[in-house]
């Protein structure tokens, strides 16, 4: 007799964890989370958390005195120790989440690959589960493009780049969107000579052209060579283990060589093994699940959240939108605003909210987006790079308790219902 659950959540990443937390607080009955990989998904293991950790370490290593002539600051980089510290951070966060989700909330865990047998039954490593409702939050994986010679060349993705215990002398990064720029900056700060190739006419094409130009200037100022309008032709192994990339850059053939090659060319949804046809869930041509405004799939008892949705544009943006949507959709209201943009780079322009022409000039109030790593867990993290905790901002106090200017809202229309952005002005007591 199959086990009966009120809710099965496939995936323990950011979207799955948000859904489980909200379902628990709303009084859901018996729940189980299914996971075949490391617990807590991309963000904790090989995404936001470790990448922001390495950004913080690399920034300190590169800038040291932050331009203050009176400071004499030196540093030496031990990547073995850095990677060990990063792994310890991940383990602490895994344990903290496990105590909360499986201990405090009492949600069950079943490890293994999930595959639908019927619309209401699921096979997990040979065990059959049945449930009234399902949430699919299986995330995405690095996409490897079809390029001549790439299959015969050793390359890195974001997964391997976060485990490098030696800084390569030089790196070619393929991809100039948020992921590619983030890793280009990490490696440059740690000491690599970085060349970045982007197919479109500008980097981060989803942002305003002015932002793309400012970002390119800032990266060039850090020694990163950015080439836009680069159409890949072939990839080859060279002598002494080097890699070469031949590309047509704005119509002109050029050849680039480096010690390592890093792919940041997009993500592919992790839906291939789910056998979604057995439960009536429709997908697009890329395998991403098609959802409506409430994240409901073509099967009325199944929802999909996170990076494997057809409308999730990049890792992090889907998750940010999901957290608000999962809260409101369970209460019967669709949240139609864009999620908070990711803060991927240590630059003033990092993580702005996208091209307003693409968004119909309908900019919303997004607020500050904390990077997700407690400051205490990043030794030496530079305070100005991290926003104050939201609860302290509301009280008008900084993180040390000192009172700052109080903010009084000028307009209070709910931005989720299409209202204007909140405005605030200083208020004197």
What can you tell me about this protein's structure?
This protein is an alpha/beta fold. It has helices spanning 14-25, 41-46, 48-63, 79-104, 158-161, 178-190, 209-221, 317-330, 390-395; strands at residues 3-10, 31-35, 108-111, 114-118, 121-124, 127-136, 140-142, 170-174, 193-198, 225-228, 230-237, 243-249, 252-258, 260-263, 267-269, 302-304, 406-409, 424-427. Strands 1, 2, 3, 4, 5, 6 and 16 form a seven-stranded mixed sheet that branches. It has a four-stranded parallel sheet with strand order 10-9-8-14, with helices on one face. Strands 11-12-13 form a three-stranded antiparallel sheet, with no helix packed on it. The chain is globular.
Question: Topology, pairings included?
Answer:
Layout: E1 3-10, H1 14-25, E2 31-35, H2 41-46, H3 48-63, H4 79-104, E3 108-111, E4 114-118, E5 121-124, E6 127-136, E7 140-142, H5 158-161, E8 170-174, H6 178-190, E9 193-198, H7 209-221, E10 225-228, E11 230-237, E12 243-249, E13 252-258, E14 260-263, E15 267-269, E16 302-304, H8 317-330, H9 390-395, E17 406-409, E18 424-427
Parallel strand pairs: 1-2, 1-6, 2-3, 6-16, 8-9, 8-14, 9-10
Antiparallel strand pairs: 4-5, 5-6, 7-15, 11-12, 12-13, 17-18
Helix pairs in contact: 1-8, 3-4, 3-6
